């Protein structure tokens, strides 16, 4: 799988597609919150993507933001299942009330 950036950018938001063998399997938006901080929004994946595949999608996005020199990735969770997945992927819950999770990108 790989990420392809779309040429559309609006108000600090940029769209991306996730592809496997040149076929689209998902999409998402990164919305810039401030310099070096982006929020993952509207992540969707095809129904046939397995749970392990979803973990791989998060790893792919985390690697991508590291390459783009984003220092923090934010995700607003809407479910306990997503909370569990985010914790597994080294995200930390920054705001319990809003269920805002953050991933601090470590650049070596």
In short:
This is N-acetyltransferase domain-containing protein. This protein is of the alpha+beta class. It is 24% helix and 48% strand.
Structure, described:
- This protein is α+β, with helices and mostly antiparallel strands and 108 residues long.
- It has a single domain, classed as Aminopeptidase, CATH 3.40.630.30.
- The protein is built from 2 helices and 7 strands.
- Strands 1-2-3-4-5-7-6 form a 7-stranded mixed beta sheet, covered by helices on one side.
- β2 (13-20) and β3 (23-34) form a beta hairpin.
- The longest helix has 17 residues, at 51-67.
- The radius of gyration is 13 Å and the shape is globular.
- The relative contact order is 0.15.
- The mean pLDDT is 91.
What topology does this entry show?
Layout: E1 2-10, E2 13-20, E3 23-34, E4 37-45, H1 51-67, E5 72-76, H2 80-88, E6 92-95, E7 100-104
Parallel strand pairs: 4-5
Antiparallel strand pairs: 1-2, 2-3, 3-4, 5-7, 6-7
